[in-house]
Amino acid sequence: MKASFMELIRQRRSVRAFEARPVEKKTQELIVEAALRSPSSRSLNPWQFVVVQDEKKREALAGVKPHGGGFLAKAPLAIAIVADPERCDVWVEDTAIAATYIQLAAESLGLKSCWCQIRLREDGKGGMAADRVREILSIPDDLEVASIIGIGYPAEEKPGHLQSELDYGKVHDEGF
């Protein structure tokens, strides 16, 4: 039985510990399809996706940020989201939407995921994380690296956030 959208987002949590088993090819294809179906401004689709299963590459990607990227080494699947900034002026927004589609697709398929911000993050060695990702994955210089989503079968369970934890004070009716 498929979960409703509200059930899906109520249970979704970022998970950074994954089982060692690989994500099946058919499941990967569904996640990629979701990414390719994500909305983009004026349907310009400035994004591209690099699917990474190779253990050495995932370990290298895990080291591109001093904090927040280590989980990628143990995620059996990683998807780097890159974009052509010349194609669309709102590529940042478009890649964020695609990342969300990837995460929700993974969740709907019984997987967990975690977002690793790359854009505008330092690598801890005096450079930028995006440059290191570009080198590891042979990404052309004219493309920007937005983020990497680590995906896999969870090795930890986290309950969804309770409705009582939601900050409804951030919601304003008819104006601020």
TrEMBL record:
<dbReference type="Pfam" id="PF00881">
    <property type="entry name" value="Nitroreductase"/>
</dbReference>
<dbReference type="InterPro" id="IPR000415">
    <property type="entry name" value="Nitroreductase-like"/>
</dbReference>
<protein>
    <submittedName>
        <fullName>Nitroreductase</fullName>
    </submittedName>
</protein>
<dbReference type="GO" id="GO:0016491">
    <property type="term" value="F:oxidoreductase activity"/>
</dbReference>
<feature type="domain" description="Nitroreductase">
    <location>
        <begin position="9"/>
        <end position="153"/>
    </location>
</feature>
<dbReference type="InterPro" id="IPR029479">
    <property type="entry name" value="Nitroreductase"/>
</dbReference>
<dbReference type="InterPro" id="IPR050627">
    <property type="entry name" value="Nitroreductase/BluB"/>
</dbReference>
